[in-house]
UniProtKB/TrEMBL annotation, chains A, B:
GO terms for biological process: fructose 6-phosphate metabolic process; protein N-linked glycosylation; UDP-N-acetylglucosamine metabolic process. The keyword Membrane does not apply. GO terms for molecular function: carbohydrate derivative binding; glutamine-fructose-6-phosphate transaminase (isomerizing) activity; isomerase activity. Keywords: Aminotransferase, Isomerase, Plasmid, Transferase. Residues 14-161 form the SIS domain. InterPro entries: FrlB_SIS, GlmS/FrlB_SIS, SIS_dom, SIS_dom_sf. The lineage of its organism: Bacteria, Pseudomonadati, Pseudomonadota, Alphaproteobacteria, Hyphomicrobiales. The keyword Isomerase applies. This is Sugar isomerase (SIS).
Length: 333, 333
């Protein structure tokens, strides 16, 4: 089989160099925001192939040294700047065990790029300030890797369908901004006053909830947070819910949507609607995105639109999104 | 090979009935507090065998329907009362796919016990109020399953060493209570006033941090919380740290201890020592526990001793540990 011509050249080069059928285990390794995209990637792989995989924080991965890490392992890393020390060290560790390492990064001359077998570039608006097309994002590139791997290891070849859907993603994001804008305008003044804001999601969307909690709310706004899995919510966390508590709930379109729907009903039963921001993918116009990938791309739409909500909160709090840091990249640690 | 005579009879029966070499994938499935013990179980398996495994919340597992779930999968469930609906449904789902299901529960006549192929009983003090011996806990039983599986699938046979260590665990817990008591006495009045308390850990201890955050702090005390992975801490969450913020840090003895050590140093550099409760396993007398399993059993010691800290906080807050619930088992949902 051959991969679609519209696939990213870096993805094609990495997968072509690989003896795909020898891959017995996939590891998805990164830190923080880059780790968050590994959750939807594993979700996609779990759906389409019986190929085992693990997601680990890069430092955990090295210290744990899982026995499945050997020459038949494929390890996929991501670091936007390519300078995350733990991730580079993990790439060196993986290669020392004979595994094949693919590194996703914006910077092709970075330490991570040097440490891996194959570099896959991507674009991120946060480095240049220039808007990107979502088909060039880390999500898009890792989805191409996963579905390419599925096809190359004997699974169904959905690569053409995937790439067509990824090309249709940016227009869908642009429409989503307009769809959610009035709700963000309404909720921002209340959320800007909160000291604790939880995010809730499951399935393909859990990573986006994790990233918004730790990288945006905690890191950029110093707001206390946690990403709560939509069903785990009912096994402890829901007891913190009252009429004043703020939640952001993602209702996606993947097979776990009923879990998020159940959380939605409970949140509205015992919380206040004005403190529960619900991003419901059923409200989005997803034209051009194949139904079988809608659930997979929705978290990127959620995350991208939520940046606008975050900036509104930041303005109201007078707390700079990209500059206000006590520690990150300001001191050595 | 034969399993040690000191192994639990239920574990021996389950493993003896299994064609261990046909097992290609292990799933660790539960909800909430029972899900938390799956993290150290997977850590132990990752350390000792190249056998792939996944941890999923029970409802996520069913909705996700991973392609690795087939007749060559072994699925290990846990529910203390055996009445957790999502877990029972997941056991039925797993068996419908041809997988072998082992269920850990205190109640041998419960719905979960009915739904699985093999029941493994355990003891929990929370059901009877009577203290148990830790060698009969869910941790102990799942570790016996994991190390039995490692031995039966061609890995090193450490089952005798494990069971000897588990027999030595309760005395170590009893000594740990005395070791940590003065620190708990000191910290409880301050922590009782906190609205947000984070837990931090990695490796084998992450599950204990998760359980204390969602089942004890959030569920039982309505205190906002999150279990932060000790290295993920540096990739976002650490920005919420200031001199007033409260953290509970677990410093275990497994291979990820340097990650927890690094978090410890940062917490003490920018936080206040009086708001950072550190459980350091190096302070414990672990006589009788083999060095190669010390890192694995330490989280149970942490969790067991932390109950005493939680009860102290509950007394000071006048917020009942076991009775004060708004929703759990008080309403239908």
């Amino acid at each position: 089989m051959s991969l679609p011509s519209a696939f990213d050249a870096g993805v094609v080069a990495a997968l072509s160099a690989l003896d795909a059928k020898s891959v017995k285990h996939v590891f998805f390794i990164a830190c923080g925001g880059s780790l968050s995209i590994m959750h939807p990637a594993k979700f996609l792989l779990d759906q389409h192939a019986p190929l085992p995989s693990d997601i680990y924080n890069a430092a955990e991965f090295v210290a744990r040294a899982p026995r499945s890490l050997d020459r038949n392992a494929l390890v996929i890393f991501c670091s936007m700047t390519g300078t995350t020390k733990e991730t580079t060290a993990a790439a060196e560790f993986a290669r020392s065990k004979g595994a094949t390492a693919i590194g996703l990064t914006v910077e092709p001359a970075s330490p991570l790029a040097e440490a891996v077998d194959h570099v896959v570039g991507f674009e991120a608006p946060y480095t240049t300030g220039v808007p990107i097309d979502a088909k060039n994002s880390n999500y898009s590139r890792i989805y191409q890797i996963v579905m390419g791997l599925v096809a190359l290891t004997g699974g169904e070849d959905l690569t053409e369908t995937l790439i067509d859907s990824l090309v249709a993603l940016q227009p869908a994001i642009d429409r989503a901004h307009a769809t959610f804008a009035p709700m963000f305008e309404d909720y921002a003044p209340r959320f800007a006053k909160e000291d604790v804001v939880y995010t809730v999601a499951s399935g393909a969307s859990y990573g986006a909830a994790y990233s918004f909690a730790i990288c945006v709310l905690m890191e950029m706004q110093w707001i206390n947070s946690q990403a709560i899995h939509a069903n785990e919510f009912f096994h402890g966390p829901f007891e913190v819910l009252d009429k004043n508590r703020a939640f952001i709930l993602m209702k996606g379109l993947d097979s776990t949507r009923p879990l998020e729907q159940r959380a939605d009903e409970f949140l509205h039963r015992f919380g206040s609607a004005e403190n529960i921001l619900v991003l419901d993918a059923e409200k989005l116009d997803l034209s051009g995105i194949d139904p079988q990938f809608r659930g997979n791309v929705v978290p990127l739409i959620f995350f991208d639109t939520l940046w606008r909500f975050a900036y509104k909160i930041a303005d109201l709090r007078k707390h700079e999104m990209l500059e206000a840091r006590r520690y990150m990249k300001k001191i050595s640690y």
